[in-house]
Write a structure and sequence with these properties.
The chain folds into 2 domains: 52 residues; 58 residues. The chain is 74% helix and 0% strand. The chain is elongated, with a radius of gyration of 24 Å. By secondary structure, it is mainly alpha-helical.
């Protein structure tokens, strides 16, 4: 079944590219179809390599860590206008961005490193 889906992906890529460039010339249509076949084969090879070398559990942990980190940093940054520091809120753009990046990256790395110990994965 996987082989049929791969062949269907390659054939549809070639067909759609060929039909799209058919309005110009037949030669251009053939070149586009052959290049799309090579690109489709490359995409299949990359997907196969990644699916066999990367653990899905680790990918889910990274995506979850990214989303949780973004939410946490957005909540912490939203508290900046209520700070007791005598600094104008408009001048805190760069520190807010840096803090958001650091917090997001920290949560992402925590989730990736501790993915075996976290029970939801």
């Amino acid at each position: 079944m996987i082989i049929v889906l791969r062949l269907l992906f390659i054939a549809l890529s070639a067909l759609i590219s060929g039909i799209y460039f058919l309005k110009d010339t037949v030669f251009l249509s053939l070149v586009a179809a052959s290049l799309s076949i090579l690109l489709a084969l490359g995409i299949i090879i990359i997907i196969e390599y990644l699916s066999h070398s990367i653990k899905p559990r680790l990918v889910v942990a990274a995506i979850t860590g990214l989303l949780v980190g973004l939410a946490l940093s957005a909540m912490i940054i939203s508290l900046f206008p209520f700070s007791i520091l005598p600094i104008a809120v408009e001048s805190l753009f760069i520190p807010k961005v840096i803090l958001a990046h650091i917090l997001t990256f920290a949560v992402l790395m925590f989730m990736v490193i501790k993915n075996e110990e976290i029970g939801i994965f």
